[in-house]
From TrEMBL:
<dbReference type="Pfam" id="PF14752">
    <property type="entry name" value="RBP_receptor"/>
</dbReference>
<keyword id="KW-0472">Membrane</keyword>
<feature type="transmembrane region" description="Helical">
    <location>
        <begin position="386"/>
        <end position="407"/>
    </location>
</feature>
<feature type="transmembrane region" description="Helical">
    <location>
        <begin position="78"/>
        <end position="95"/>
    </location>
</feature>
<keyword id="KW-1003">Cell membrane</keyword>
<keyword id="KW-1133">Transmembrane helix</keyword>
<feature type="transmembrane region" description="Helical">
    <location>
        <begin position="107"/>
        <end position="129"/>
    </location>
</feature>
<keyword id="KW-0813">Transport</keyword>
<dbReference type="GO" id="GO:0038023">
    <property type="term" value="F:signaling receptor activity"/>
</dbReference>
<dbReference type="GO" id="GO:0005886">
    <property type="term" value="C:plasma membrane"/>
</dbReference>
<keyword id="KW-0675">Receptor</keyword>
<feature type="transmembrane region" description="Helical">
    <location>
        <begin position="427"/>
        <end position="451"/>
    </location>
</feature>
<feature type="transmembrane region" description="Helical">
    <location>
        <begin position="479"/>
        <end position="507"/>
    </location>
</feature>
<dbReference type="GO" id="GO:0051649">
    <property type="term" value="P:establishment of localization in cell"/>
</dbReference>
<dbReference type="InterPro" id="IPR026612">
    <property type="entry name" value="STRA6-like"/>
</dbReference>
<feature type="transmembrane region" description="Helical">
    <location>
        <begin position="24"/>
        <end position="42"/>
    </location>
</feature>
<feature type="transmembrane region" description="Helical">
    <location>
        <begin position="141"/>
        <end position="159"/>
    </location>
</feature>
Length: 621
Protein backbone atom coordinates (compact mmCIF):
# COMPACT_ATOMS: atom_id res chain seq x y z
CA UNK A 1 0.00 0.00 0.00
CA UNK A 2 1.31 3.41 -0.95
CA UNK A 3 1.27 6.27 1.54
CA UNK A 4 -0.85 9.35 0.93
CA UNK A 5 2.19 11.48 0.16
CA UNK A 6 3.53 8.98 -2.38
CA UNK A 7 0.14 8.69 -4.10
CA UNK A 8 -0.01 12.49 -4.26
CA UNK A 9 3.39 12.63 -5.93
CA UNK A 10 2.43 10.00 -8.49
CA UNK A 11 -0.82 11.78 -9.33
CA UNK A 12 0.99 15.07 -9.73
CA UNK A 13 3.43 13.47 -12.16
CA UNK A 14 0.54 12.96 -14.57
CA UNK A 15 -1.18 16.29 -13.78
CA UNK A 16 -1.36 18.54 -16.84
CA UNK A 17 -3.13 21.82 -16.17
CA UNK A 18 -4.87 23.95 -18.75
CA UNK A 19 -2.69 26.94 -17.76
CA UNK A 20 0.94 27.01 -18.82
CA UNK A 21 2.60 29.82 -16.89
CA UNK A 22 5.48 30.10 -19.38
CA UNK A 23 3.04 30.33 -22.29
CA UNK A 24 0.94 32.87 -20.40
CA UNK A 25 4.08 34.93 -19.88
CA UNK A 26 4.47 35.17 -23.67
CA UNK A 27 0.82 36.08 -24.26
CA UNK A 28 0.84 38.65 -21.45
CA UNK A 29 3.02 40.87 -23.64
CA UNK A 30 -0.08 41.82 -25.69
CA UNK A 31 -2.04 43.53 -22.88
CA UNK A 32 1.22 44.80 -21.44
CA UNK A 33 2.08 46.67 -24.64
CA UNK A 34 -1.48 47.98 -24.86
CA UNK A 35 -1.32 49.43 -21.32
CA UNK A 36 2.09 50.95 -21.96
CA UNK A 37 0.88 52.62 -25.17
CA UNK A 38 -2.26 54.00 -23.49
CA UNK A 39 -0.31 55.50 -20.61
CA UNK A 40 2.35 56.83 -22.97
CA UNK A 41 -0.26 58.60 -25.12
CA UNK A 42 -1.78 60.14 -22.01
CA UNK A 43 1.61 61.34 -20.82
CA UNK A 44 2.56 64.88 -21.83
CA UNK A 45 6.05 65.97 -22.70
CA UNK A 46 7.39 68.72 -20.51
CA UNK A 47 9.62 70.16 -23.24
CA UNK A 48 8.61 70.36 -26.89
CA UNK A 49 11.19 69.19 -29.37
CA UNK A 50 12.41 71.07 -32.39
CA UNK A 51 10.10 71.30 -35.38
CA UNK A 52 12.47 69.32 -37.57
CA UNK A 53 11.74 66.25 -35.42
CA UNK A 54 8.99 63.99 -36.77
CA UNK A 55 7.52 63.56 -33.27
CA UNK A 56 5.90 67.01 -33.53
CA UNK A 57 3.04 65.29 -35.34
CA UNK A 58 1.96 63.97 -31.92
CA UNK A 59 1.86 67.54 -30.55
CA UNK A 60 2.71 67.41 -26.85
CA UNK A 61 1.31 63.91 -26.32
CA UNK A 62 3.04 60.53 -26.21
CA UNK A 63 6.01 60.36 -23.92
CA UNK A 64 7.53 57.00 -23.03
CA UNK A 65 6.50 56.39 -19.46
CA UNK A 66 9.18 55.43 -16.98
CA UNK A 67 8.46 52.45 -14.72
CA UNK A 68 10.45 53.76 -11.76
CA UNK A 69 12.84 56.57 -10.97
CA UNK A 70 15.79 54.54 -9.69
CA UNK A 71 17.41 57.63 -8.13
CA UNK A 72 14.96 60.01 -6.53
CA UNK A 73 11.76 58.09 -5.76
CA UNK A 74 10.98 58.22 -2.05
CA UNK A 75 7.17 57.98 -2.21
CA UNK A 76 5.21 54.75 -2.71
CA UNK A 77 8.37 52.86 -1.81
CA UNK A 78 6.62 49.78 -0.46
CA UNK A 79 4.21 49.66 -3.39
CA UNK A 80 7.16 49.51 -5.76
CA UNK A 81 8.79 46.94 -3.50
CA UNK A 82 5.69 44.72 -3.61
CA UNK A 83 5.59 45.13 -7.40
CA UNK A 84 9.17 43.85 -7.51
CA UNK A 85 8.13 40.98 -5.27
CA UNK A 86 5.47 39.94 -7.78
CA UNK A 87 8.26 39.16 -10.26
CA UNK A 88 10.11 36.78 -7.92
CA UNK A 89 8.92 33.51 -9.48
CA UNK A 90 9.87 34.63 -12.97
CA UNK A 91 13.29 35.82 -11.80
CA UNK A 92 13.96 32.45 -10.17
CA UNK A 93 12.85 30.85 -13.43
CA UNK A 94 15.52 32.86 -15.22
CA UNK A 95 18.04 32.21 -12.45
CA UNK A 96 17.68 28.46 -12.94
CA UNK A 97 18.18 29.03 -16.70
CA UNK A 98 14.83 27.41 -17.40
CA UNK A 99 14.04 29.93 -20.14
CA UNK A 100 14.68 27.91 -23.30
CA UNK A 101 12.22 28.95 -26.02
CA UNK A 102 14.60 27.94 -28.82
CA UNK A 103 17.26 25.32 -29.36
CA UNK A 104 20.42 27.35 -29.61
CA UNK A 105 24.14 26.62 -29.13
CA UNK A 106 25.73 27.02 -25.74
CA UNK A 107 27.75 30.10 -26.71
CA UNK A 108 24.53 32.05 -27.42
CA UNK A 109 23.01 31.29 -24.01
CA UNK A 110 23.76 34.81 -22.78
CA UNK A 111 21.63 36.34 -25.55
CA UNK A 112 18.72 34.04 -24.69
CA UNK A 113 18.88 35.02 -21.05
CA UNK A 114 19.00 38.69 -22.09
CA UNK A 115 15.87 38.22 -24.20
CA UNK A 116 14.23 36.38 -21.32
CA UNK A 117 15.05 39.21 -18.91
CA UNK A 118 13.60 41.78 -21.31
CA UNK A 119 10.44 39.69 -21.75
CA UNK A 120 9.95 39.31 -17.99
CA UNK A 121 10.52 43.03 -17.50
CA UNK A 122 8.09 43.93 -20.28
CA UNK A 123 5.38 41.60 -18.97
CA UNK A 124 5.56 43.16 -15.49
CA UNK A 125 6.11 46.74 -16.66
CA UNK A 126 2.37 47.66 -16.35
CA UNK A 127 2.59 47.24 -12.57
CA UNK A 128 5.27 49.90 -12.31
CA UNK A 129 3.85 52.09 -15.09
CA UNK A 130 0.45 52.25 -13.42
CA UNK A 131 2.07 53.10 -10.09
CA UNK A 132 4.13 55.94 -11.54
CA UNK A 133 1.58 57.41 -13.98
CA UNK A 134 0.11 60.84 -13.20
CA UNK A 135 -3.30 59.85 -14.60
CA UNK A 136 -4.47 58.06 -11.50
CA UNK A 137 -7.99 57.21 -12.64
CA UNK A 138 -6.97 55.48 -15.87
CA UNK A 139 -3.83 53.88 -14.45
CA UNK A 140 -5.71 52.47 -11.44
CA UNK A 141 -8.27 50.81 -13.73
CA UNK A 142 -5.59 49.36 -16.00
CA UNK A 143 -3.39 48.30 -13.08
CA UNK A 144 -6.28 46.62 -11.26
CA UNK A 145 -7.36 44.75 -14.40
CA UNK A 146 -3.82 43.55 -15.17
CA UNK A 147 -3.15 42.51 -11.57
CA UNK A 148 -6.50 40.70 -11.41
CA UNK A 149 -5.62 38.78 -14.59
CA UNK A 150 -2.29 37.60 -13.18
CA UNK A 151 -3.92 36.78 -9.82
CA UNK A 152 -6.70 34.72 -11.44
CA UNK A 153 -4.32 32.82 -13.72
CA UNK A 154 -2.00 32.02 -10.80
CA UNK A 155 -4.92 30.81 -8.66
CA UNK A 156 -6.13 28.65 -11.55
CA UNK A 157 -2.65 27.16 -11.99
CA UNK A 158 -2.44 26.32 -8.28
CA UNK A 159 -5.92 24.77 -8.05
CA UNK A 160 -5.43 22.54 -11.08
CA UNK A 161 -2.09 21.05 -9.96
CA UNK A 162 -1.64 21.88 -6.26
CA UNK A 163 0.68 19.00 -5.41
CA UNK A 164 4.22 18.24 -6.49
CA UNK A 165 6.75 15.46 -6.87
CA UNK A 166 9.15 16.70 -4.16
CA UNK A 167 7.20 18.30 -1.29
CA UNK A 168 4.02 16.38 -1.98
CA UNK A 169 0.84 18.12 -0.86
CA UNK A 170 0.41 21.80 -1.80
CA UNK A 171 3.86 22.11 -3.32
CA UNK A 172 2.67 24.62 -5.92
CA UNK A 173 1.14 26.78 -3.20
CA UNK A 174 4.45 26.77 -1.33
CA UNK A 175 6.14 28.21 -4.40
CA UNK A 176 3.50 30.76 -5.40
CA UNK A 177 2.09 32.14 -2.15
CA UNK A 178 4.55 35.10 -2.02
CA UNK A 179 3.54 36.11 -5.55
CA UNK A 180 -0.14 35.75 -4.66
CA UNK A 181 0.36 37.93 -1.60
CA UNK A 182 2.09 40.64 -3.67
CA UNK A 183 -0.62 40.55 -6.34
CA UNK A 184 -3.32 40.75 -3.67
CA UNK A 185 -1.62 43.82 -2.19
CA UNK A 186 -1.44 45.44 -5.64
CA UNK A 187 -5.14 44.73 -6.17
CA UNK A 188 -5.99 46.46 -2.92
CA UNK A 189 -3.70 49.40 -3.65
CA UNK A 190 -5.07 49.96 -7.18
CA UNK A 191 -8.62 49.74 -5.80
CA UNK A 192 -7.75 52.34 -3.16
CA UNK A 193 -6.13 54.50 -5.84
CA UNK A 194 -9.24 54.23 -8.03
CA UNK A 195 -11.60 55.29 -5.23
CA UNK A 196 -9.38 58.20 -4.27
CA UNK A 197 -8.92 59.43 -7.86
CA UNK A 198 -12.65 59.05 -8.52
CA UNK A 199 -13.47 61.26 -5.53
CA UNK A 200 -11.02 63.84 -6.83
CA UNK A 201 -12.56 63.63 -10.31
CA UNK A 202 -16.05 64.18 -8.89
CA UNK A 203 -14.84 67.14 -6.85
CA UNK A 204 -15.38 65.51 -3.45
CA UNK A 205 -11.70 65.79 -2.55
CA UNK A 206 -8.92 68.19 -3.44
CA UNK A 207 -6.25 66.90 -5.75
CA UNK A 208 -2.86 66.46 -4.16
CA UNK A 209 -0.11 68.74 -5.39
CA UNK A 210 2.67 67.74 -7.72
CA UNK A 211 5.65 65.78 -6.47
CA UNK A 212 7.92 68.09 -4.44
CA UNK A 213 11.43 68.67 -5.69
CA UNK A 214 12.75 68.70 -2.12
CA UNK A 215 11.57 65.81 0.01
CA UNK A 216 10.60 66.41 3.62
CA UNK A 217 13.34 64.21 5.09
CA UNK A 218 15.95 66.00 2.98
CA UNK A 219 14.82 69.37 4.30
CA UNK A 220 14.90 68.01 7.85
CA UNK A 221 18.45 66.77 7.28
CA UNK A 222 19.59 70.25 6.22
CA UNK A 223 17.82 71.79 9.24
CA UNK A 224 19.67 69.40 11.54
CA UNK A 225 22.96 70.51 9.99
CA UNK A 226 22.15 74.16 10.64
CA UNK A 227 21.03 73.62 14.22
CA UNK A 228 23.37 73.99 17.13
CA UNK A 229 24.04 70.64 18.68
CA UNK A 230 23.36 70.34 22.42
CA UNK A 231 26.35 70.01 24.73
CA UNK A 232 25.03 66.79 26.24
CA UNK A 233 23.76 64.21 23.79
CA UNK A 234 20.79 62.06 24.64
CA UNK A 235 21.51 58.61 26.00
CA UNK A 236 20.80 55.82 23.52
CA UNK A 237 19.31 52.47 24.36
CA UNK A 238 21.09 49.17 23.88
CA UNK A 239 19.10 48.50 20.71
CA UNK A 240 20.02 51.90 19.24
CA UNK A 241 23.69 51.48 20.12
CA UNK A 242 24.24 47.87 19.10
CA UNK A 243 21.63 47.07 16.43
CA UNK A 244 19.86 49.96 14.69
CA UNK A 245 18.91 53.56 15.32
CA UNK A 246 15.96 55.08 13.48
CA UNK A 247 16.77 58.29 11.63
CA UNK A 248 13.76 60.45 10.61
CA UNK A 249 16.03 62.56 8.39
CA UNK A 250 16.93 59.63 6.13
CA UNK A 251 14.83 57.48 3.83
CA UNK A 252 15.88 54.58 1.66
CA UNK A 253 15.07 55.05 -2.03
CA UNK A 254 12.55 52.80 -3.74
CA UNK A 255 15.37 50.92 -5.44
CA UNK A 256 16.79 49.73 -2.12
CA UNK A 257 13.36 48.78 -0.73
CA UNK A 258 12.45 46.88 -3.90
CA UNK A 259 15.80 45.09 -3.96
CA UNK A 260 15.42 44.01 -0.34
CA UNK A 261 11.84 42.76 -0.76
CA UNK A 262 12.74 40.86 -3.92
CA UNK A 263 15.86 39.42 -2.30
CA UNK A 264 13.80 38.12 0.63
CA UNK A 265 11.29 36.37 -1.63
CA UNK A 266 13.97 34.98 -3.96
CA UNK A 267 15.92 33.69 -0.95
CA UNK A 268 12.81 31.93 0.31
CA UNK A 269 12.19 30.35 -3.10
CA UNK A 270 15.85 29.35 -3.38
CA UNK A 271 15.71 27.62 0.02
CA UNK A 272 12.54 25.78 -1.02
CA UNK A 273 14.16 24.66 -4.30
CA UNK A 274 17.27 23.56 -2.45
CA UNK A 275 15.16 21.58 0.01
CA UNK A 276 13.35 19.90 -2.89
CA UNK A 277 16.68 18.89 -4.36
CA UNK A 278 17.72 17.59 -0.94
CA UNK A 279 14.58 15.44 -0.79
CA UNK A 280 15.35 14.06 -4.22
CA UNK A 281 18.96 13.23 -3.27
CA UNK A 282 17.82 11.78 0.06
CA UNK A 283 15.39 9.44 -1.69
CA UNK A 284 18.17 8.26 -4.01
CA UNK A 285 20.46 7.73 -1.02
CA UNK A 286 17.72 5.78 0.75
CA UNK A 287 17.47 3.46 -2.26
CA UNK A 288 21.23 3.04 -2.28
CA UNK A 289 21.22 2.43 1.48
CA UNK A 290 18.55 -0.22 1.03
CA UNK A 291 20.76 -2.02 -1.46
CA UNK A 292 23.67 -1.89 0.97
CA UNK A 293 21.45 -3.26 3.74
CA UNK A 294 20.30 -6.13 1.55
CA UNK A 295 23.94 -6.93 0.76
CA UNK A 296 24.82 -6.99 4.44
CA UNK A 297 21.83 -9.26 5.14
CA UNK A 298 22.85 -11.66 2.39
CA UNK A 299 26.42 -11.79 3.74
CA UNK A 300 25.12 -12.11 7.33
CA UNK A 301 27.24 -9.06 8.31
CA UNK A 302 30.42 -11.13 7.97
CA UNK A 303 31.74 -9.94 4.59
CA UNK A 304 35.04 -8.16 4.09
CA UNK A 305 33.23 -4.99 2.96
CA UNK A 306 31.02 -4.86 6.03
CA UNK A 307 33.08 -2.23 7.97
CA UNK A 308 33.35 0.01 4.91
CA UNK A 309 29.60 -0.26 4.22
CA UNK A 310 28.78 0.61 7.82
CA UNK A 311 31.03 3.69 7.62
CA UNK A 312 29.39 4.76 4.35
CA UNK A 313 25.93 4.39 5.90
CA UNK A 314 27.03 6.40 8.91
CA UNK A 315 28.46 9.13 6.66
CA UNK A 316 25.21 9.37 4.69
CA UNK A 317 23.09 9.58 7.85
CA UNK A 318 25.35 12.23 9.39
CA UNK A 319 25.44 14.30 6.19
CA UNK A 320 21.66 14.23 5.79
CA UNK A 321 21.09 15.28 9.38
CA UNK A 322 23.71 18.04 9.33
CA UNK A 323 22.39 19.43 6.02
CA UNK A 324 18.89 19.81 7.43
CA UNK A 325 20.10 21.34 10.70
CA UNK A 326 22.30 23.95 8.97
CA UNK A 327 19.45 25.29 6.79
CA UNK A 328 18.31 27.57 9.60
CA UNK A 329 21.66 29.20 10.51
CA UNK A 330 22.59 29.67 6.84
CA UNK A 331 19.25 31.31 6.05
CA UNK A 332 19.41 33.52 9.16
CA UNK A 333 22.91 34.61 8.18
CA UNK A 334 21.73 35.79 4.75
CA UNK A 335 18.63 37.46 6.21
CA UNK A 336 20.81 39.37 8.66
CA UNK A 337 23.05 40.38 5.73
CA UNK A 338 20.08 41.99 3.97
CA UNK A 339 19.31 44.16 6.99
CA UNK A 340 22.98 44.89 7.56
CA UNK A 341 23.44 46.00 3.94
CA UNK A 342 20.65 48.56 4.41
CA UNK A 343 22.35 49.84 7.57
CA UNK A 344 25.69 50.06 5.72
CA UNK A 345 24.04 51.93 2.86
CA UNK A 346 22.77 54.59 5.24
CA UNK A 347 26.10 54.79 7.04
CA UNK A 348 28.11 55.09 3.81
CA UNK A 349 25.75 57.68 2.32
CA UNK A 350 25.98 59.86 5.42
CA UNK A 351 29.76 59.68 5.31
CA UNK A 352 29.80 60.72 1.66
CA UNK A 353 27.41 63.59 2.42
CA UNK A 354 29.85 64.75 5.08
CA UNK A 355 32.74 64.57 2.59
CA UNK A 356 34.34 61.56 4.29
CA UNK A 357 35.84 59.05 1.84
CA UNK A 358 38.36 57.43 4.18
CA UNK A 359 36.25 54.28 4.51
CA UNK A 360 36.75 53.62 0.77
CA UNK A 361 39.93 52.24 -0.78
CA UNK A 362 42.13 54.92 -2.30
CA UNK A 363 41.42 53.72 -5.85
CA UNK A 364 37.70 54.38 -5.41
CA UNK A 365 37.93 58.01 -4.34
CA UNK A 366 37.36 59.13 -7.94
CA UNK A 367 35.47 56.35 -9.74
CA UNK A 368 34.63 56.33 -13.42
CA UNK A 369 31.39 58.15 -14.26
CA UNK A 370 30.35 55.59 -16.87
CA UNK A 371 30.97 52.67 -14.51
CA UNK A 372 28.98 54.41 -11.80
CA UNK A 373 25.99 54.88 -14.10
CA UNK A 374 26.11 51.21 -15.11
CA UNK A 375 26.41 50.27 -11.43
CA UNK A 376 22.87 51.53 -10.79
CA UNK A 377 21.52 49.00 -13.30
CA UNK A 378 23.77 46.22 -12.00
CA UNK A 379 23.44 46.61 -8.27
CA UNK A 380 19.91 45.30 -7.65
CA UNK A 381 20.32 42.18 -9.77
CA UNK A 382 23.81 41.46 -8.50
CA UNK A 383 22.76 41.91 -4.87
CA UNK A 384 20.06 39.26 -5.26
CA UNK A 385 22.42 36.86 -7.05
CA UNK A 386 25.11 37.38 -4.38
CA UNK A 387 22.60 36.59 -1.64
CA UNK A 388 21.43 33.39 -3.35
CA UNK A 389 24.88 32.05 -4.18
CA UNK A 390 26.14 33.24 -0.81
CA UNK A 391 23.45 31.22 0.95
CA UNK A 392 24.42 28.08 -0.94
CA UNK A 393 28.14 28.51 -0.23
CA UNK A 394 27.55 29.33 3.44
CA UNK A 395 25.27 26.31 3.74
CA UNK A 396 27.89 24.02 2.26
CA UNK A 397 30.63 25.39 4.53
CA UNK A 398 28.46 25.13 7.61
CA UNK A 399 27.55 21.56 6.65
CA UNK A 400 31.23 20.64 6.30
CA UNK A 401 31.87 22.20 9.71
CA UNK A 402 28.95 20.24 11.16
CA UNK A 403 30.24 16.97 9.72
CA UNK A 404 33.70 17.68 11.19
CA UNK A 405 32.10 18.42 14.57
CA UNK A 406 30.10 15.19 14.44
CA UNK A 407 33.14 13.07 13.57
CA UNK A 408 35.40 14.95 15.96
CA UNK A 409 33.26 14.97 19.10
CA UNK A 410 29.80 13.42 18.87
CA UNK A 411 30.42 10.10 17.10
CA UNK A 412 33.46 9.13 19.20
CA UNK A 413 31.35 9.62 22.34
CA UNK A 414 28.59 7.46 20.82
CA UNK A 415 31.16 4.74 19.98
CA UNK A 416 32.54 4.82 23.54
CA UNK A 417 35.76 6.55 22.53
CA UNK A 418 35.09 9.81 24.30
CA UNK A 419 38.09 9.55 26.60
CA UNK A 420 40.45 9.28 23.63
CA UNK A 421 38.86 12.30 22.02
CA UNK A 422 39.17 14.34 25.21
CA UNK A 423 42.80 13.31 25.52
CA UNK A 424 43.58 14.33 21.94
CA UNK A 425 41.61 17.55 22.37
CA UNK A 426 43.50 18.39 25.54
CA UNK A 427 46.88 17.77 23.87
CA UNK A 428 45.89 19.96 20.91
CA UNK A 429 44.70 22.81 23.16
CA UNK A 430 47.88 22.54 25.25
CA UNK A 431 50.07 22.68 22.14
CA UNK A 432 48.30 25.76 20.77
CA UNK A 433 48.43 27.41 24.19
CA UNK A 434 52.18 26.87 24.44
CA UNK A 435 52.74 28.32 20.96
CA UNK A 436 50.61 31.36 21.75
CA UNK A 437 52.32 31.69 25.10
CA UNK A 438 55.75 31.78 23.47
CA UNK A 439 54.55 34.47 21.07
CA UNK A 440 53.21 36.53 23.97
CA UNK A 441 56.47 35.96 25.85
CA UNK A 442 58.42 37.45 22.94
CA UNK A 443 56.30 40.58 23.07
CA UNK A 444 56.75 40.84 26.85
CA UNK A 445 60.53 40.45 26.61
CA UNK A 446 60.68 43.11 23.88
CA UNK A 447 58.60 45.48 26.00
CA UNK A 448 60.58 44.92 29.18
CA UNK A 449 64.20 44.77 27.93
CA UNK A 450 64.53 46.09 24.40
CA UNK A 451 62.62 49.39 24.55
CA UNK A 452 63.71 52.57 26.26
CA UNK A 453 61.61 53.97 29.13
CA UNK A 454 58.63 56.26 28.57
CA UNK A 455 59.41 59.89 27.96
CA UNK A 456 56.37 60.97 29.96
CA UNK A 457 54.25 59.16 32.52
CA UNK A 458 51.13 60.01 30.50
CA UNK A 459 52.37 58.06 27.45
CA UNK A 460 50.40 54.91 26.67
CA UNK A 461 53.41 52.93 25.45
CA UNK A 462 57.17 53.13 25.30
CA UNK A 463 58.82 54.91 22.36
CA UNK A 464 60.14 52.88 19.43
CA UNK A 465 63.75 53.28 20.52
CA UNK A 466 65.98 50.24 21.04
CA UNK A 467 67.73 49.48 24.28
CA UNK A 468 70.25 46.73 25.14
CA UNK A 469 71.20 46.29 21.50
CA UNK A 470 73.69 43.42 22.02
CA UNK A 471 71.16 41.30 23.87
CA UNK A 472 68.60 42.24 21.24
CA UNK A 473 70.77 40.92 18.38
CA UNK A 474 71.39 37.63 20.22
CA UNK A 475 67.69 37.36 20.93
CA UNK A 476 66.88 37.73 17.23
CA UNK A 477 69.56 35.23 16.17
CA UNK A 478 68.44 32.35 18.37
CA UNK A 479 64.73 32.89 17.71
CA UNK A 480 65.31 33.06 13.95
CA UNK A 481 65.26 29.27 13.54
CA UNK A 482 62.25 28.80 15.77
CA UNK A 483 60.26 31.48 13.95
CA UNK A 484 60.80 29.63 10.67
CA UNK A 485 58.76 26.73 12.04
CA UNK A 486 56.32 29.08 13.69
CA UNK A 487 55.80 30.87 10.37
CA UNK A 488 54.56 27.63 8.81
CA UNK A 489 51.67 27.48 11.26
CA UNK A 490 51.02 31.21 10.83
CA UNK A 491 50.82 30.74 7.06
CA UNK A 492 48.33 27.89 7.39
CA UNK A 493 46.26 29.87 9.87
CA UNK A 494 46.25 32.81 7.44
CA UNK A 495 44.94 30.55 4.67
CA UNK A 496 42.33 29.05 6.99
CA UNK A 497 41.04 32.42 8.22
CA UNK A 498 40.98 33.82 4.68
CA UNK A 499 38.87 30.89 3.47
CA UNK A 500 36.48 31.15 6.40
CA UNK A 501 36.03 34.91 6.14
CA UNK A 502 35.85 34.79 2.34
CA UNK A 503 33.08 32.19 2.32
CA UNK A 504 31.29 33.84 5.26
CA UNK A 505 31.24 37.27 3.61
CA UNK A 506 30.66 36.13 0.02
CA UNK A 507 27.07 37.40 0.12
CA UNK A 508 28.14 40.85 1.36
CA UNK A 509 28.34 43.02 -1.73
CA UNK A 510 29.08 46.08 0.42
CA UNK A 511 32.37 44.61 1.66
CA UNK A 512 35.18 43.36 -0.54
CA UNK A 513 36.86 40.05 0.22
CA UNK A 514 39.93 40.92 -1.86
CA UNK A 515 43.27 41.89 -0.37
CA UNK A 516 44.28 45.54 -0.19
CA UNK A 517 45.30 46.74 -3.63
CA UNK A 518 43.16 44.18 -5.49
CA UNK A 519 39.74 45.63 -4.71
CA UNK A 520 39.03 46.46 -8.35
CA UNK A 521 38.91 42.74 -9.11
CA UNK A 522 35.76 42.51 -6.98
CA UNK A 523 33.05 43.45 -9.47
CA UNK A 524 30.29 43.37 -6.87
CA UNK A 525 32.11 45.84 -4.61
CA UNK A 526 32.73 48.09 -7.62
CA UNK A 527 29.00 48.07 -8.36
CA UNK A 528 28.30 49.00 -4.74
CA UNK A 529 30.73 51.92 -4.81
CA UNK A 530 29.41 53.19 -8.15
CA UNK A 531 25.84 53.03 -6.88
CA UNK A 532 26.82 54.99 -3.76
CA UNK A 533 28.43 57.75 -5.82
CA UNK A 534 25.44 58.10 -8.16
CA UNK A 535 23.06 58.40 -5.21
CA UNK A 536 25.46 60.80 -3.51
CA UNK A 537 25.64 63.13 -6.52
CA UNK A 538 21.91 63.08 -7.28
CA UNK A 539 20.22 62.87 -3.86
CA UNK A 540 22.57 64.81 -1.61
CA UNK A 541 20.18 66.81 0.66
CA UNK A 542 22.39 69.90 0.67
CA UNK A 543 22.67 69.95 -3.12
CA UNK A 544 18.95 69.27 -3.60
CA UNK A 545 18.10 72.03 -1.10
CA UNK A 546 20.34 74.46 -2.96
CA UNK A 547 18.69 73.62 -6.30
CA UNK A 548 15.28 73.93 -4.62
CA UNK A 549 16.15 77.46 -3.46
CA UNK A 550 17.30 78.41 -6.96
CA UNK A 551 14.13 77.09 -8.58
CA UNK A 552 11.89 78.69 -5.97
CA UNK A 553 13.66 82.04 -6.32
CA UNK A 554 13.40 81.91 -10.10
CA UNK A 555 9.68 81.19 -9.93
CA UNK A 556 9.12 84.03 -7.48
CA UNK A 557 10.97 86.50 -9.70
CA UNK A 558 8.94 85.44 -12.74
CA UNK A 559 5.75 85.79 -10.73
CA UNK A 560 6.70 89.30 -9.60
CA UNK A 561 7.50 90.31 -13.16
CA UNK A 562 4.19 88.91 -14.38
CA UNK A 563 2.30 90.86 -11.70
CA UNK A 564 4.24 94.04 -12.54
CA UNK A 565 3.59 93.74 -16.27
CA UNK A 566 -0.04 92.82 -15.67
CA UNK A 567 -0.49 95.93 -13.54
CA UNK A 568 1.20 98.00 -16.24
CA UNK A 569 -1.10 96.66 -18.95
CA UNK A 570 -4.23 97.25 -16.89
CA UNK A 571 -3.36 100.73 -15.60
CA UNK A 572 -4.16 102.55 -18.88
CA UNK A 573 -7.77 101.35 -18.91
CA UNK A 574 -7.70 100.84 -22.68
CA UNK A 575 -7.43 97.41 -24.25
CA UNK A 576 -3.89 96.70 -25.42
CA UNK A 577 -3.08 93.88 -27.80
CA UNK A 578 -0.49 91.27 -26.98
CA UNK A 579 1.67 92.35 -29.91
CA UNK A 580 1.75 95.97 -28.74
CA UNK A 581 2.57 94.89 -25.17
CA UNK A 582 5.43 92.72 -26.47
CA UNK A 583 6.83 95.60 -28.54
CA UNK A 584 6.61 97.94 -25.57
CA UNK A 585 8.47 95.50 -23.34
CA UNK A 586 11.06 94.99 -26.09
CA UNK A 587 11.57 98.73 -26.38
CA UNK A 588 11.98 99.07 -22.63
CA UNK A 589 14.54 96.25 -22.55
CA UNK A 590 16.55 97.73 -25.43
CA UNK A 591 16.52 101.19 -23.82
CA UNK A 592 17.90 99.76 -20.59
CA UNK A 593 20.48 97.66 -22.50
CA UNK A 594 21.57 99.60 -25.64
CA UNK A 595 24.34 97.15 -26.47
CA UNK A 596 21.76 94.47 -27.27
CA UNK A 597 20.60 96.55 -30.26
CA UNK A 598 23.78 95.73 -32.19
CA UNK A 599 23.07 92.02 -31.77
CA UNK A 600 19.50 92.12 -33.09
CA UNK A 601 18.64 90.84 -36.54
CA UNK A 602 17.27 93.69 -38.70
CA UNK A 603 14.52 93.19 -41.29
CA UNK A 604 14.83 96.57 -43.02
CA UNK A 605 18.13 98.35 -43.07
CA UNK A 606 17.01 102.05 -43.02
CA UNK A 607 14.43 101.72 -40.30
CA UNK A 608 16.80 99.77 -38.07
CA UNK A 609 19.61 102.33 -38.46
CA UNK A 610 17.29 105.17 -37.42
CA UNK A 611 16.01 103.08 -34.51
CA UNK A 612 19.57 102.37 -33.40
CA UNK A 613 20.47 106.07 -33.48
CA UNK A 614 17.41 106.93 -31.37
CA UNK A 615 18.27 104.29 -28.79
CA UNK A 616 21.93 105.26 -28.59
CA UNK A 617 20.96 108.81 -27.71
CA UNK A 618 18.94 107.55 -24.74
CA UNK A 619 20.82 107.44 -21.42
CA UNK A 620 21.32 104.08 -19.67
CA UNK A 621 19.08 103.53 -16.69
Amino acid sequence: MLSTNERTRQLNGTCVGSVDMELFLHYSLIPSLFIILVLSFLQRREHRRQTDDTSYLLTNHFEIIIPLDFLGTFSNRWSYGIAFGATANKIMFLFSEGYQPLQIPQWAQAFVLLIGGIEVGLSHLPFFACLSSEFRLVSSILGFSYSLTWFAVTILHITQCPHGQFLGSYETLVFYWPTLLCLFFLLGYFLHLFVKSLRVHLGWELQTGEKPFLELHQAEHVKQLLKRRPLQEEKKSWFQTRIYEWDPCFQFPSRMIGTTVLAFICLYLFIVIEFCMFLYVRNELDVFEGKLESYLTSMNHTGTLTPIILQVKELMNVTKGVWVVTILPASLTCVSYLFHILACYRKHMKRLWAGNKHFLPLKFHNPSSSESVVAIARYSGWQIAYILWGYLIIHVVQSLGGVMFMYGLVLPVIHNRGLEVLQGLGIGILTISIVLGLMILQVWIATSFFLQPKMDTADKQKPLALNNRKVFHNFNYFLFFYNVLLGLGACLSRLLFSCILGTWLIARIDRTIMQSGYERADMGFRAWIGMLYVDHYHTNPVLVSFCHLLITGHRERRLQQAVQYGHLSQSSGARVSARSRTRWLLLQTLINNPRLVMLRKSKSGHGSQEFIQILLTCPES
